Amino acid sequence: MDELFYFIIAKYNYWAALVLLFIGLFGMIVKNNLMKKIIGMVIFQTAILLFIVSIGVKRGATVPILQFSPDKQPLLDATAYANPLPHVLILTAIVVGVAVLGVALALLQKIQRVHGTIEEDEILEDMRK
Amino acid sequence: MTWDTSLLWQFDILILLMMVICAVTALALEGLLSSAIVTGAYSFLICLMWTHMRAVDVAFTEAAVGAAISTVLFLGTAQYVNRWIKKDRPREQGIKQITLVIAVICAVMMLNATRDLPEWADPASPASTHLSPRYIEQAYFETATPNVVTAVLADYRSYDTMFEAVVVFAAALVVMVVLRRTSHKHRMALHLRPKRAGRDTVLRGAAQSIIPVMQIFALYVLFHGHYSPGGGFQGGVIFGASFILLALCYNLKFSMNRFREHAVLWCCAGGVLLYAGIGAACLAMGWNFLGYGALAGVLGVSDVMARSHGILAVEIGVGITVMAVMVSLYNDLASGGDLEEGL
Amino acid sequence: MMDQTPAIMILVPVFASLALTLIGPLGHRAAYGLLIISIAGSLAAALATMVQVVQTGQAVHYRMGDWIPPMGIELVIDHLSAGVLVLISACALLTAIYSMHTARQDNPDRLNHYYALFALLVAGLLGMTATGDVFNLYVLLEISALSSYGLLARGKGKAYYATFRYLMMGTIGASFYLLGVGYIYIMTGSLNMADLAEILSRPELEASVSVRIGFSLIILGVWIKMALFPLHAWLPNAYSRAGTTTACLIAPLMTKVSVYVMLRIMFTVFSADYIFQQIAWSRLVIYLASAAAVLGMITALSQRDLRKMLTYIIVAEIGYLTGGAWLANTAGYTGAVYHILADGLMTLCLFMAVGAIIYRTGESTAAAMQGLFQRMPVTAGVLLVAAASVVGVPPTCGFFSKWYLLQGAVKAGEWVFVAALIIAGLLAAILFFRLLERAFFGRLEDAVTENGSEKSQEVPRKIRLEEAPLTMLLPLVITGAALFGLGIYTNEVVQYLIRWSMPAGI
Q1: Which of C32, C65, C79, C249 is found 20 to 30 A from C475 (Cα to Cα)?
Q2: By the CB < 8 Å criterion, does C159 face chain A?
């Protein structure tokens, strides 16, 4: 029992990220409404970001901003701070995500104007005409 | 095996559970408006999660982008499309089902394979022992910036960050290119949308009192990025959000009188130009691109301080671009591209 | 200044796109000129870098921000990337010159913003090729993807939905790549390619499941991006509705750069040993590649729309490239790398020729080919050369890449791939024979009656010479000549570029 408990404690973050990832992927593939597809895409992307940020966590570590001792010397114990590199990557990736979201929504508005609908099967019918 | 109580796993699991529920709900709801709101809630939960993981800069960004701006963009688009999805879908394409089966198999395999990953939050994992200690130990002496995330973002990996600014710039361009070609017929249809006078006294009063504070806070976040969470990106988003709030509480015309279309475009490009220009200046001074140490001679400070100033300068560039791009995305998406009437 | 060429090559288009955004009031000629100057600058820098690489015989390393890798990001230009960089900038320059009339036709408004996205796409592709950092590659991948969405959405009316589908697939591909990078990062703690290669070669990571998942995710993401069968469905829809300039820019380059990324990941980050010994997928991948080649050509044969036909040829060519890379021998690798260059030029040539035909006739079905040799002799001649190259007739470069690929396939004993190469070649021959027969023997009057318009009575009986404008013809002829040139200098290309980039263990 304890084994299992430790196992869950040690990995639950990765699991949650992967579950969210596949929920998002499901939305992107199966949903018929294009807006829902975009929402699926947002969930899918953030799940990956969650996964990568999880890498940066260290037990007993604080935020990666250096603290100073009273005599103004920085405390440089690397184990005391979370890993900053994943944070940097994810900052960039969040920005990429919002950029893609903006473009997707713009295309969605245009699709609505051209085809009069954002349901995938109706668009395909409209294109066949 | 031990784990630190500072990472409250019960709290984590609760949030993650709520995130899964939000994700499923956002996809299952029939109304697109409520879906958008639930997606916003999902973003907010992920912020909590990240704060708890000590990724404050990331959480800050996600709060500003995911929970605020993205939701507004969703709502802005939702007013132009059918807000209710159609339910009766008897036929399903076979290809989708095959893809789904493959996805489920992958999911099971990947979940199973997490066994091989290093234990979560293990300080001895390769990710925490290879590069990251070097950043933590050297960043302050090499860039005089206590916030290691800022130092890595705007100096060690500043080439990435420059292209991050270029990405948002490209997004604004693409949205402009896609949306701002309004045919005459469509323009007539757009005239039918409800006009908002934007005369609600409570909203206006609230906006009047919040917006100056927001803008000052945005500047603080930008300029204090060396010492606290934040930086150009977060500051820029907050500053952009202040204009969006203005447009929401008054109307689009009002906010566009304050921040004109041309100015927005100039700021979009100008921020990136500032960033890349600083890089090119370093190149011209005989260092490599973005080697801020080259500026030491001009600024009359040491190499290390020059790097610190360089970080500040490029953060300002990022801030300007991001602020303008957020405003531009909102203006285009909320008005359907004709910049007449907003959300 | 010479040691700064890698940065200059990527930055010039970035600056150009910023300037292009703002110079709307100066009119289209200024925009056109600025675009050409900036891309010519990139080409010059790329050539200079290539000369340097070939002369010194070793890769050029450029440290961004003067940080020592793996702490900072570095650009690494070796023999493989130098060739691809020159290909990208040369193709982009030719397309830029070509775009004078077509871009204005497709973009009645906001031409300068269109050109700004054009320059950004080129910067993104160059950056992807030059970078030595796996995360930086992701960022630049997204830049090229975003700008290509903008360019493709400028196509004909129904392009929005096709672009939306492409955006979804592109995002899935890029996200898989990012997730794969995440997995690799967990296990290694690094992002620099050279550093990763060193860490991944350690024996304790050889059997790691997570590394394997990371590799699979990255490769899957790249396959989606390069439209390998059966993940190719988005490509023909998105590309065939694009404007002419957009198609000429994106069709030859985007997929080829993705193939380049695949080679980079396979042989620089991972190693030939790891891929062919530890991950024993080669058989399966070669089957997929063979299916791509044959089915791509068959579908191309069944298309009536010229553009759509060409897009399926791209799908088939991706099959050749992938198969060659996974053959795990010298000839196969040489064929794949050589074919990146050859196919880039071939595709560019085909799309330009068809673009010129569409520009003059306003028709995009096969009927537009009717009597082409009389109306547009130069265009038709170049089209003939490009067709010969796709089919694999010596001395065009298409022959040599096929030759290497066949050699590699025979040596590896992959008879399915051998058969696929031969069948696909024959199908291509049939396809182009049908087209060119029409172009050579078809009479103009037939074309008019086939279109079923009432205008037939007023069409002049005598054949009029309607060659494309000079700005279109010139790049077209240069590309056609380059197909011969690359073919004739095959030995040199293989000797000075490809031999050097041969990964260890093949």
Answers
A1: C79
A2: no
